[in-house]
Amino acid sequence: MFTSIGPDAVGKIHPAEFDLLCAPKNPRISIRPAKVDDIDEIYRIIHGNVSFAVAPPDVMRFAIAINRNNIVAFLRHGEIVGVYAMLMLSVRGLEAILVGDFDGRDPHGSQLATRLERPAAIYQWLVVAPGLAAEGVMHVAALLQHPHYRAANLYMRSFSQAGARISTALGFQPVPGAALKGLHRYVRLTNRPTVADVPTHALPRAA
Length: 207
Known about the structure:
This protein has 5 helices and 7 strands; from the N terminus they run E-H-H-E-E-H-E-H-E-H-E-E. It has helices spanning 39-49, 57-66, 91-99, 133-143, 161-169; strands spanning 30-33, 71-76, 79-89, 121-128, 153-157, 173-174, 183-186. Strands 1-2-3-4-5-7-6 form a 7-stranded mixed beta sheet, sandwiched between helices. The protein is globular, with a radius of gyration of 17 Å. Residues 2-13 and 203-207 have low confidence and may be disordered.
């Protein structure tokens, strides 16, 4: 969820396609998969900047054990300054999202894809990085352009107006009739029909 970016970042997120974001030419931070040893520092940052309940540290450790790329640490001058937590979902995980049988605070292991599996979808879990979250999102967006992830649609939940505005600015849209409150989806560019895929009768005619 992008609510943890904070209201001060809303104005910094300009309308853009998530898939078209790229890392800045002069980055202030770098990213890498988080390690189990990073969890304590990550949760220190989370607890200092997030007011709502999040998954406990053991759940994040479990997510790293399943797939080290689930949790991405933001670093500046070698120090952890933020985190982009996501869950690479298996087909069962995607089904659970769609039918409302998914608990983001304690996901079942069968709902998560391992590092060697192509994810069926990616759940945006949590983004926290005071003053650097917008850039962190850009770095992760570039990472998710890798062929292993490029076709996995993104899901997230927004629980605040600020979070909804940020997600919408990045191309996420509410999922109609979703069983999970605040569920948004970003359909990856590679999954969208091109003009060539649209039946001729569906195309607008010249006046």
